[in-house]
Write a structure and sequence with these properties.
mainly alpha, 76 residues, 33% helix, 0% strand
Length: 76
């Protein structure tokens, strides 16, 4: 038995669209549906954003500027 995992959304009409070619056409398949909570999706996107951009600007990359220093301290 081959197993494929896809993340998709059920349409308003209750249909699932799979991003596969025609190799599943006219074949009998077993479908297991696992719902995800909305907060799980949001938390993952927040974490992936932080992981992607954390450390992008390091202190050594910044030019010594009194105005920048003041703003950095003010908005910590």
């Amino acid at each position: 038995m081959q197993v494929f995992k896809y993340h998709t959304t059920v349409s308003n009409r209750g249909e699932l669209n799979l991003p596969v070619g025609t190799f599943l056409s006219n074949k009998e398949v077993e479908v297991i549906v696992v719902t995800r909570k909305e907060s799980e999706n949001l938390d993952k996107s927040k974490i992936s954003f932080v992981d992607k951009w954390a450390g992008f600007l390091k202190d050594s990359d910044m030019v010594a500027d009194p105005k920048m220093e003041y703003l950095s301290q003010k908005y910590k």
